[in-house]
Amino acid sequence: MLEEKKVLIVDDENKIVEVIKSYLEKEGAIVFEAYDGNQALEMFERINPDLIVLDLMLPDMTGEEICSIVRKKSRVPIIMLTAKIDEKSIILGLHMGADDYITKPFSPRELIARIYAIFRRLNEEVVPLSNEISFNDNDLVIDMLKKEIRKNGENIALTSRQYKILMTLLKYPNKTFTREELISTALGDDYDGYDRNVDTHVKNIRQKIETNPKDPQYIITVHGTGYRFGGEFNEEKS
User: Fold this and answer.
1) Which residues carry this modification: 4-aspartylphosphate (predicted)?
2) Domain count, the chain
């Protein structure tokens, strides 16, 4: 059940909103509605939703624009809902930070199933950040309290930005982050570098934590998209 999950539906078609709302409420969700981009952003700030169902074609701005604005502030799951079916539109939506994509006309049951799948994935992918976490049979150990990192038992030094990027990636090991997402999530909106500067940071992190930086185990390149964490989580120490 989706009990107590706050879901924001953003669509300018009343009938679609009502159908989705009906199905979600049967699953126990708390549903909020928005019919244009400005209303959606205001609602997002006010209710802090657990998930957003977002139509791409709105009267005042595009769903891609809304997604981009939201992604600068939040990792809330977003399902794109649209009549656009061409591959370019789908890829653009995913690159803007959408978690899934469903085309109109659609089955409400399929939408509900995708929402459940997203919440299951979120529950599975978050690494518990305890006092100390280790990866690949203690090859890499991170002391969360001291913010110290050990590679094969030896302390290594990361810059503040390198540390933030690494922590963002390892917290969601099954999530592929685009460069733009790493900037907004790890480095913050005040970061004044270009998105390609992220590649330089990643290269420098690899030099410090990888046994073979040319064949990385921890920061994996997902070609055409960005990076994900590939280390095998071992155990939680207190």
Assistant:
1) 55
2) 2
- pTM for this structure? 0.57
Rounded CA-CA distance 209/54 in Å is: 39
Indicate if 88 and 158 belong to the same structural domain.
no
Q: Report pLDDT digits (tens) over 135-173.
A: 888 899 988 777 889 999 999 999 988 998 998 888 777
- Domain annotation covers residue 103: yes
List the structure tokens of 1.
């059940």
Asked if residue 193 is part of any domain, the answer here is yes
Tokens representing 40? 């959606």
Q: Calculate the CA dihedral of residues 220, 223, 225, 227 and round it to 10 degrees.
A: 10
3-state per-residue secondary structure call for the chain: CCCCCEEEEECCCHHHHHHHHHHHHHCCCEEEEECCHHHHHHHHHHHCCCEEEEECECCCCEHHHHHHHHHCCCCCCEEEEECCCCHHHHHHHHHCCCCEEEECCCCHHHHHHHHHHHHHHHHHHCCCCCCEEEECCCCEEEECCCCEEEECCEEECCCHHHHHHHHHHHHCCCCCEEHHHHHHHHHCCCCCCCCCHHHHHHHHHHHHHCCCCCCCCCEEEECCCEEEECCCEEEEEC
CATH number for the domain including 80? 3.40.50.2300
